[in-house]
Design goal:
The protein is α/β, with parallel strands linked by helices. The chain folds into two domains: about 10-50, no CATH class; about 65-300, Rossmann fold. About 35% of the residues lie in helices and about 20% in strands. It is built from nine helices and eight strands. Strands 1-2-4-3-5-6-7-8 form an eight-stranded mixed beta sheet, with helices on both faces. Helix 1 (about 10-20) runs antiparallel to helix 2.
């Protein structure tokens, strides 16, 4: 994002974004970053810096005693048949009771490479914020996230996109219907997941209370009128393609009187929230976007406690 020596140039980051979106082949990506191997940077160093390091992006350990997590498979008759996901709840003394506290649910949708460790970590962060989070893996029927983003992207491209969306609809409805959910759910996601959070808002209508898509494509125009969720939009101001589409996205929501709020976060590229990719990650705006997301979901998914008479 800067021209400082040792920093990865913005055009190289854009090449990585195009590569992970499947817009260019791996060979073209490797050849392209070579053009920016100047000032002491080698092409290998640039590629290594751009690839995710999931150890860096783990804020909540998998065995953190404050949470309880498990993998659950959900039926999806209109999709690929089933979808497996990572379910996380906060753990407390109340959790051990026969009737644990009812919590709002959050569907956390991965990028276009499957349920990687970063997305699971985000689900754990929601649990620590007193939500029940479910992070589905759209790669379930091809073996799940393979442990490698490149291979994950190849598997992702092999699947029917409409069925993937139906898998996520099934996951959202399953979460909402759980006896330990308060009946209100929200959706968030990143890149593909952000677009799917927007899509779920149009599909689910009043079944979804809120959505906070991160750098995702807008809800299809024909479905905007069906949105009843409150929409919180996160884009990086340097994510030129999505930033260019942002005014039309907001105008369409306003035209249909959808409650919404939008942010073009400064000095932020596509993927600015992902702390597993440090050359894209912006710690300042990521923290701000996270805080606003929690505020938004708390506002729209918490069931008010009736006043005592």
């Amino acid at each position: 994002m800067t021209d400082d020596p040792g920093k990865i140039p913005a055009p190289a980051i854009d090449l990585y974004t195009r590569f992970i979106h499947g817009e260019i082949w791996r060979r073209a990506f490797m050849r392209g970053v070579g053009r920016y191997a100047v000032g002491g940077l080698t092409a290998t160093a640039i590629v290594d810096a751009l690839m995710p390091n999931y150890a860096l992006g783990q804020q909540v350990q998998k065995d953190d005693e404050r949470i309880r997590a498990s993998y659950v498979t959900v039926p999806s008759p209109d999709g690929h048949g089933s979808i497996r996901g990572y379910l996380v709840r906060p753990f407390s003394a109340d959790s051990r009771s026969a009737t644990p506290a009812l919590l709002p649910g959050v569907i956390v949708i991965h990028e276009n490479r499957g349920l990687n460790p970063h997305t699971e970590d985000v689900a754990r962060r929601f649990a620590l914020a007193n939500f029940m989070a479910f992070a589905p893996d759209t790669l379930t029927t091809v073996g799940g996230y393979p442990g490698d983003d490149y291979r994950g992207g190849q598997l992702f491209a092999s699947l029917d996109r409409a069925k993937m969306t139906q898998d996520l609809v099934a996951a959202a409805r399953w979460l909402k219907a759980r006896p330990d959910c308060n009946g209100k759910i929200a959706a968030t996601g990143f890149c593909f997941g952000g677009g799917q959070a927007n899509a779920l808002a149009g599909i689910l209508g009043p079944e979804l209370a809120a959505a906070a898509p991160f750098y995702g494509g807008a809800t299809p125009a024909a479905a905007v009128a069906n949105i009843r969720a409150a929409i919180l939009i996160h884009h990086g101001a340097l994510d030129t393609r999505l930033a260019a589409d942002y005014p039309a996205q907001v105008a369409e929501l306003a035209r249909h009187n959808v409650r919404h709020e939008g942010h073009l976060w400064p000095d932020s590229v596509h993927g600015f929230f992902n702390d597993a990719t440090p050359e894209r990650y912006n710690p300042v705006t990521a923290a701000q976007a996270w805080a606003r997301t929690l505020e938004w979901f708390n506002e729209h998914t918490r069931v008010p406690v009736p006043a005592r008479s």
